[in-house]
């Protein structure tokens, strides 16, 4: 409550739509009831959310009216055409663009609108394409058209000072555009054009950077068109004339659309899901009518043709701008839906949405900026947020940052995303398709970027830190329905998960706690006479299905014989796991070695399935991963097995068997280099290593922590048993987490090497209670609070079996476990 009061004291005039038809509380209670279920959605820069009322209105509209293809003369068609014309007006109105000056061309999104500009722009070898460093990949892609036609391309930095040196403050802001390296392709294959000095040039910038939220000064439009020489002073482009300006308003227009009557850009692009969440797959290009005349379109189609003759080179195109450019039938139902979104935005007003959303981003920025670890070190580095004045219009409702540990090292952004998701917070990480801004704000040089690519880093992968440096950042962004409570929950999450408080240790010295040491390190002294033994052995023949425990089992070169030797694959080739299909945990398995049979059972199937493993079962047959199917005896057998699994999991799938004969595959090895821990030995379909070992004592410690939490929260929960973690080997004895320090170990006569802790994911939050699959946030959330090491949440130890070729080995429950600690 105090936090709310503190917030309202500073931002009360801006927050919550005090003068609107509904205040924020009412909006949330009536139009976003689905968010009450604990989701904190903070990725409005990715896509904002539709309101339930908006969808109700669309549903009523569609179920009460008849809409048909507008390309005909019927009443229904012309009613649809009228609706589309109305929608165009609404879009133009939203940007204060007069229909005399501008046309609205519907596209499938902002990207398609940008592509249309790139494709049709009148490039010549004397043209220049300039674009601000902070641009989305969809803008950078225009470069391909420019360079392909022999034009030059160049990224620029837009710098703004309060006023020009030596000039009066009243003369307004001084904007300078500084160029980077000029790019030009070898054009020897292109026919040389005569230089006539009448080439058109294009300048592109976003109204709001989707990486930092920084807003560009829209005076740039006029400066580039009318005062090019001064604006581009010192660059090779300063003398170029005929500049056309493109504003990428995809992000910016959700909370503050550019006013085109004041800033007459030639092209503006937008996607409607960014404005009001629905529909997706619809955007628009707003184009100045005089600029549209210069665009060169090659393709014609139904929709854009007035007449054509099939067997000679004759075509007459439609003349109205939108008819000339909109190929095919318009997406008329999506277009019909946008008026319900605009109605909503209009009722709130753009300026109130701007104030509401920026009050939240300002609050979060200020809070993040003030965070300190117990040792005084800065927690958060914000990008592009130097200016923290709410009504400056310099910064949109986006906060982008990375977090640091007390020792100055970076937290990987994926760690933040993973923990946020456990707390029900949806945020975005990476470079947000804006490589220029990412490089600029993270200070990544060309050689950093190229070596990151060489190290295997691509967009959306798991490489969040390379050589200790972030490859991207964390972004939270607010929408018109975001609330203070959400912003506060986010800040509380950052504090509880990433800020290291002061902690007293034995000699009274105060150090910064958390995040720096391995939890096991504190236990060194307690471990004088440990005595460990093997408590259980479990085999999981089919990846992600239930396993079975035995008192003894053969070991082979892939680990436990038949462990993860099969997996289930979806129709499109994807590997099915409990993460996608939680019900897989309800499929039970058993192998009778003497009979050579794998038996599988599911409550969803009447009969048990028996699969012959073949008499040479100790040397599984050679079926390479990625081969077409599990080549069981014959086609009928294959169909029988696949039908059984399709019934058991409720979707089309097939069973695949792995060959352990001579390949060294590992799923993660194939999917993403670097994720598989054991690159040395043979493993079947296990993700990272042959064995997972879990200590009963470590599970008991975790249970104590969960119990303490439950007491605080006044709830009771069943104790976790070690099988929640899908171990192959459970050991008993010693102290919790001593296994963290083991380098090698012997179980009976068998030798194993530790490959380190197992990085846990959401799968351990899936439980199977009385035949029902349940999902919760635990135990991952609790583990995250004390078992995080370098971005990973570790629990259990991965092992490799050091096979002794001479002996046929069986591992037995009860055998002594002898670790070797280096
Ligand atoms: C600034 C910016 N430009 C362009 C795009 C591309 O938009 P769309 O994917 O809707 O085509 C986005 C989407 O995130 C964006 O934020």
TrEMBL record:
One term of GO molecular function: molybdenum ion binding
Enzyme class: transferase
Reactions mediated catalytically: Mo-molybdopterin + L-cysteine + AH2 = thio-Mo-molybdopterin + L-alanine + A + H2O
GO BP, sorted A to Z: Mo-molybdopterin cofactor biosynthetic process; monocarboxylic acid metabolic process
Modification N6-(pyridoxal phosphate)lysine, positions: 274
A Pfam family it matches: MOSC_N
Domain annotation MOSC: ranges: 653-820
Cofactors (names): pyridoxal 5'-phosphate
InterPro entries with a match to the protein in the record: Aminotrans_V_dom, MoCF_Sase_C, MoCo_sulfurase, MOCOS_middle, PyrdxlP-dep_Trfase, PyrdxlP-dep_Trfase_major, Pyrv_Knase-like_insert_dom_sf
Phosphoprotein keyword on record: no
Keywords on record: Molybdenum cofactor biosynthesis, Pyridoxal phosphate, Transferase
Active site: 433
Annotated EC: 2.8.1.9
Record-stated family: Belongs to the class-V pyridoxal-phosphate-dependent aminotransferase family. MOCOS subfamily.
Function: Sulfurates the molybdenum cofactor. Sulfation of molybdenum is essential for xanthine dehydrogenase (XDH) and aldehyde oxidase (ADO) enzymes in which molybdenum cofactor is liganded by 1 oxygen and 1 sulfur atom in active form.
Protein name: Molybdenum cofactor sulfurase
Originating organism: Arabis alpina (Alpine rock-cress)
Lineage of origin: Eukaryota, Viridiplantae, Streptophyta, Embryophyta, Tracheophyta
